[in-house]
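Bumping with the actual sequence this time:
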Amino acid sequence: FPTRRSSDLMIKVIIERKIAQGMESTYDAAIKDTLRAILEAPGYMSGANFKDSEDPNHRVIITNWRSLPAWKEWQASEARRNVIAAIQPILESSEKITVLTA
């Protein structure tokens, strides 16, 4: 079997955010813009948004990427910076990002 470098393997990225009280609809609207932008990102495969069943202000986004370099390119992109700038004011704390490999 050819050996695959870890940077070539599909990855999952989990992004956790805590939204300020009363800002749920603002966040939900901003996430739609994020989805439109991310669909253009090279290497993006799929994603889903979740609400914590115990805390509706705790949001979790799970995305699938073709490779770690594809995610890192999106993470550093101007498109993502613009999207994050739109939601930053309504977050209680910085987003937490976890990158998982198989």
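The tokens above came from a reply further down the thread. The mean pLDDT is 91.
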